[in-house]
Amino acid sequence: MSGRHDEHAEAAADIEAVEQANTAFYEAMERGDYDTLTGLWLPGEDLTVSCVHPGWPVLTGRGDVLRSYALIMANTEYIQFFLTDVGISMTGDTALVTCTENILSGGPAEEGNALGPLVGQLVVATNVFRRTPDGWKLWSHHGSPVLAETGEDEDEETPA
Question: In which domain, by residue range, is 77 found?
């Protein structure tokens, strides 16, 4: 019985570690901390990393992916992520995190203002992590904008 208990404890520890890695990813974005963000992605090219930002084409390879974050950080004065609907599933050394990114962001200031207008956006995201000797690292991030409200649509009638 203790073997089964150990497996559960190990799985719970892995899920917690993946959740911490996922949180660290968003916190690095909020702080504009490019060095930390770089360290959160899989190193080297053994497994090619990929990224899809909302409205962007697929970016593959560590160089292109990290350049995209440098560009976003350079053009975003303020960004904050409120994550909801976080789900984590695992198999072996791979973890899949799904979540809704409730984003509040602002661009560079215009005409002497401290900050440009703040914009809210909903994005559903999938983050794939791989276990490495240095902890869980991002293998792929895919963000897709939520274009319509979910839930019941009052204008739609269901047939009787």
Answer: 2-145
